[in-house]
Each structure stands twice: as C-alpha cells, then as structure tokens.
Design brief:
This protein has about 375 residues and is α+β, with helices and mostly antiparallel strands. About 20% of the residues lie in helices and about 30% in strands. The longest helix has 12 residues. The protein is elongated, with a radius of gyration of 24 Å.
C-alpha cells in the first residue's frame, strides 16, 4: 500500500441479475426440486440428506434463496417450516430423501431508520453491493446518541427500497464498520446473497484490509523495549505482529482493552512506512487486520507503546519535543482532532460473480496536510 496519494484500482462493474428469490418465479436447485412464490418456498430433500432438519435445509435450499443456517433455524423456531401439514419446530427433527418441506417466508419489514439525502462518495456499485468512502465524523449505523446523519441513513435514500432483507428487515447489509472518526472504505451488501457471501469472507478473514495510521514514536523492530512487550513478535519484512485477546475494559465500559486468555482473539500487523523528526517522533504506519475487532488498531498500537495521534481514548495525547519537529508540525500534531487512522485498502471476492475486487482510497485531506507539515 502506497501512503502517498493512491490511485483507486479500477474494476469493471459487473451488472448481475438481482438475486431476490421472492421475485424469481420458479427454478430448480442443485440438491432437490424447488418451487417458490411470493410468501413460501418448497424444497424437496435430496439424496443422502443430513439427519437433522436444519442441516438438510441448509444443504438443499438453493443458493439464490440466500437463507443462512441461522436464518433457517429462526424460521424453524417460529413455526414457519412444515412437512405434509405438520409444523417442524425442532431443528434436530429427522428428515428423509423425498420429503416435501414448505417454508413460509414473512414479508421483509420496513426499516425504522429514516432515509436521508446525504452525499455519498461511491467507488463501486452493482446490483448486489456498493463500496463507499466514509468520511471522518460520520457514524456508520444509527444509535441512541446519533439517530440521523449516518451512513445507513444515506444508503437507505440512495437504494430507494432495493435492500437486503437479511433478518427479515429491509436495510443495507452492514458486514463491517469503521469508527466514527476513522475515514475510509466500506463495502455494503444490497442483496441477501451478497450479505451472506461477504459475511462469510469477513468471518474467514479472507478480506484484505489495510489502514494508514500516524502514531507517536518509532515502532522499530530492533527496539528491545518493543520486543519485550507481551503479544508482540516480529515477522519478515520488518513487520510487527501484535496478538492478544480484546474485551471491554474492566472499569471503562466504553473502551476495549488487551487481555490474554479472555476476550476475542485479535491479530494486527504493522509496518513503518515513514518516520518524521530527529530524533524519530512520529511514524506513518501501515496496519493490516487479520481480525476485525472493535478499536483493534487503536488498542493494539497503544499496547505496543505507539498510540495514534489525535486518539482521545487510547492515544495519550503525548507532548511532542519542539526540538524534533518544526513549530508548525508540533502545533499540528497537538491540534489534530481525531484518531489519525484511514481505511486505505479494501479487497475481496465479489460474493456473486467471484470477481476479485480491490480498492485504494487517497489519504484524506487532514492526514495529508499533517504529513506535509511533518515532512517539514
């Protein structure tokens, strides 16, 4: 990843047929006969089925129906799965080849979130997904403190009703998020099939995500102090690997904290791109996520002793030595009013076409201007 203004990788937009099974008429699945209507789906269990109902349906429901095993389990629990007039409410119920299973599909409910005509920086869009560049200061999803002005509000207006119905509610398929004060690239599903496919890729850690971060100090792979930090190791190419568990802070529930043996496993890899100051005072670092936990980069870099500039929660707001940088650079570091973090690279396989897509986003103006001042 280049940390100078990058060129967005251009990909050909593949316009594919909308995969909304409720509008598709009828078809035949690969594992059994299928007929579909506006409110129900009928599946014939194929040969050698798994013994359990939920597993058999997960295998034989056609891919274009975009019903995950979790969604199927919810439909079974809701009494929406019937065999020859008998409701099957137990996911462990036995099934056999040739069983006719009817699944009643509730209409997708309208989201309670209001659409808003807000500007969107769209980098790619087709029938199944959209890639957008989120500016710093915008929240991804509405919450009690921010009910409007979010990315989801903007997407609801842009999609004009053409939304993923995952979970029974029509809304943009948010499969990953970035913090309010982090800028960068996000992919959002528009169809159920894309939602499931993208979620699977994020769960399998196959999505490429690289961030540009400005941190205090110099994360030098040869630094004995850094090598002594628990969870920190070195990899070829001057890469620093930070491995830990992350969970809520014991006393501040708004924060995440590093643990070992408790919490969600998290791995961040960091590589220094450029160092500023004499002695080294600030570094531009490329951070790549193997996992994607809340505040992961911010927490891991702070744990390593190199918190992000401008981060009010984990950065520490250190004082920069006036002798190391120009007066204007010192002032700019002190005044930077958000965590200096930018989601610069996003790469994944298109969940419907399997086409490899990769995007790069230019450094945002505020970080670019700070880097210019740091260079003197």
């Amino acid at each position: 990843m280049s940390m100078t203004p990058a060129i967005i990788v251009t990909v050909r937009t593949v316009t594919s047929r909308r995969r909304n099974f409720r509008l598709a008429g009828s078809s035949t699945g690969s594992s059994g006969a299928l007929s579909m209507s506006d409110s129900s789906l009928r599946v014939t269990i194929g040969a050698s089925p798994p013994a359990r109902l939920d597993k058999a349906l997960a295998r034989d429901v056609p891919e274009e129906a975009a019903l995950s095993r979790t969604r199927l389990a919810r439909l079974i629990a809701d009494g929406a799965v019937v065999r020859t007039g008998v409701v099957l409410s137990d996911p462990k119920a036995k099934v056999a080849e040739g069983d006719e299973i009817e699944i009643t599909l509730p209409e997708v409910a309208e989201s309670h979130i209001e659409p808003e005509d807000l500007p969107l920086d769209i980098r790619f869009e087709d029938d199944d997904l959209i890639v957008v560049m989120k500016p710093a200061g915008m929240v991804v999803h509405p919450a009690p403190g921010t009910p409007s002005g979010t990315l989801v509000n903007a997407l609801l207006h842009h999609f004009d009703g053409q939304l993923s119905g995952v979970g029974g509610v029509g809304r943009p398929g948010i499969v990953h998020r970035i913090d309010k004060d982090t800028s960068g690239l996000l992919v959002v599903a528009k169809s159920d099939r894309a939602h499931h496919g993208l979620a699977d890729q994020f769960a399998a850690h196959t999505v490429e995500r690289a961030y540009a971060a400005l941190v205090y100090g110099h994360p030098d792979v040869g630094d004995p102090r850094l090598r002594g930090v628990r969870g920190v190791s070195m990899e070829p190419g001057s890469v620093i690997r930070i491995t830990s568990d992350l969970a809520r802070h014991k006393t501040d529930r708004q924060k995440q904290a590093v643990f070992f043996g408790h919490g969600k496993h998290a791995i961040t890899r960091a590589r220094v791109v450029e160092v500023f100051g004499a002695p080294a005072t600030v570094s531009l670092v490329e951070c790549r996520l193997e996992t994607g936990r809340t505040h992961q980069i911010r927490v891991h870099m702070a744990h390593a002793g190199h918190g992000l500039i401008g981060d009010p929660v984990y950065g520490g707001r250190r004082k920069v030595a006036k002798s190391a940088l120009s007066e204007s650079a010192v002032a700019a570091v002190a005044a930077f009013d958000r965590q200096a973090l930018h989601a610069a690279v996003l790469g994944f396989a298109h969940p419907v076409t399997a086409q490899k897509l990769r995007f790069e986003a230019d450094m945002p103006d505020d970080m670019d201007e700070l880097i210019t001042l740091l260079r003197g």
